[in-house]
Amino acid sequence: MSNKHYPHIILGAGVTGLSLAHHLNKKGLSFKVIEKAKRHGGVVHTKSEKGFVYESGPNSGIVSHPEVVALFDELGDAIKVEKGNDLVKVRYVLKNGEWHALPSSMKLAVTTPLFTFKDKLRVLGEPFRKKGNNPDESLADLVKRRLGNSFLDYAIDPFILGIYAGDPAMLIPRHALPKLYNLEQNYGSFIKGAIKKRKEPKTELEQRTDRAVFSFEGGLSQLTDALLKSAGKDNFTFGAEELSVSYNDGLYTVSYTLDGEKQVVTCDKLITTFGSTGFKEALPFISEEEMTHLTNLKYARVVEVALGFNKWNGRALDGFGGLIPHKEKRDLLGVLFMSSLFKERAPEGGALLSVFMGGIRNEALCDLDDEQLMKVLESELKDIMKMDAFNPSMVDIMRYSHAIPQYAINSGDRFDAIERVQKKYNGLFIAGNLRDGIGMADRIKQATLLADKLVE
Ligand SMILES: Cc1cc2nc3c(=O)[nH]c(=O)nc-3n(C[C@H](O)[C@H](O)[C@H](O)COP(=O)(O)OP(=O)(O)OC[C@H]3O[C@@H](n4cnc5c(N)ncnc54)[C@H](O)[C@@H]3O)c2cc1C
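That is the input. Now the predicted structure with flavin-adenine dinucleotide docked in place:
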């Protein structure tokens, strides 16, 4: 049994915990990361099989915050950032069984069949429309008000399926899409705001925050491997089971079992980086009432299927992939054309697809067994990808019971509870995807800002 004391203990070694550990190490702060699983990376996990290199969990990230650019700079030669090629700009949306590219120019915006003529005209009036004043308006209502129904159904809805596997009627923009919400609130209009923001002076890091789609040569695990190395592997403990923390007068005692042996360590500052489902077991000292606010967070269930084809026989994979609006009533959320975007993901002449099913509005699909899922996949993909035959050479079905947190109407309650709990328990910091965004870039930003706070 060990009885060591650390200034900081980080619980969880996903992107959040790893990024935080990297920054603390760089700042010369002493810490220990304790991870439940036997591996680092959390939901980020690049796998390879039969000549295909595929992801379980996220497939790519977006350079959406300067903190991401800074982290990549810091990791230097340890990572080989691979930005998606030009095809990332081509994003298809399914309408009436046919793929249509989301318009990327004025001409295409006028001719696209995705939106109605009435809504296309309506968009011209968007800069002059009154600003909303309900902070809890749903994303669906915001988009209907400013842009019209067809933009909600064939632009925002598939976009939200792609990011949140969610429902625009449930998500609250100021929590779920704060950048979009602030365009309206700060500039009075999405269009005016986007134009004005482009003209605002930017730091060098902000200029390099180009919203590019990123992965790494050989996959996303290259990032988590590099972070582990730079944070110092010896600062990590993996495979910590039955972990539970107690609090007494500014001191945290973390107990867990490692290879059947009980371990006890203490710290002054405890940082959690896991999602809301881990709280009850790990932090039993938090009152039931506060725990209810902290854990009242719905996660979308998702099934992700990596499909490798030695010889591709379907439609051209000439884009980022395709998203399928809820209105189309299909059994898939979307398909990513991974081998078209990044190098060496499939053998020559072959293809790698990443297919998503389930989500907030179609969770029942996640209950299907593998055989049933494959039948659904076969019938859907043959139809929408125009495949002559469905004969994948590699299949990996990955299920996530708590994939993506939905920042819904109760988010404010949760954020308030986090502040109260952190105030009550000196030295407790609640990070992770309960707040501050759901993508990898958001996790990196949160960890960077938290590291600065911990130094203070
Ligand atoms: C299917 C799927 C697709 C996604 N697609 C994208 C995408 O395309 N682009 C994008 O940017 N993001 C995407 N995301 C989101 C992105 O993957 C996450 O934002 C990010 O990886 C989360 O990192 P994290 O460290 O916060 O959490 P996690 O990766 O969940 O890590 C938390 C860690 O904490 C550990 N843990 C749990 N409980 C305890 C405990 N009690 N004690 C110690 N350790 C504990 C877990 O084992 C885990 O390793 C996707 C997520 C999923 C699930």
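The longest strand covers residues 261-272.
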